[in-house]
Amino acid sequence: MPVIRIELLINAPVEIVFDLARSIEIHAKSTAHTKEKPVAGVTSGLIELGQTVTWEAIHFGIKQRLTAKITIMERPYRFVDEQVRGAFKHFKHTHEFSAVPNGTKMVDIFEYTSPLGVLGRLADKWFLEAYMHDFLLQRNLYIKAAAEDALRNG
Length: 154
Known about the structure:
Elements: E1 3-10, H1 14-21, H2 24-30, E2 37-41, E3 52-59, E4 62-74, E5 78-85, E6 90-100, E7 103-113, H3 117-153
């Protein structure tokens, strides 16, 4: 099972970063390159514990839907979303936030299992793990920019 870990330092308070990371609108903007949009469940605002969101996006030229549920929420330090339905056999996405001297350390840990057994594991090695790393990094850099812009612009 691949585990992707991304750490970023963000020059903004932990509360701001935490809320941006669970904002439906920020998620949609940060993934615009895949035409990702919420189509069911929570479709705007801040997602909360026990709530679900269904995202529709285009990955690898194929329109897909994925439903995730917030299974843990410890504001403003941690939340976890897990796949309820979608292309993965399983995924668990842990978002951690800690206050540091110049702002927030944001850690993303994405654990997943691809479908299709051996073929899925080959896909992980050949392209999927790198694709998911880049997808999550781009999203996190968007959150960083939004948080630092919010701090600058009040």
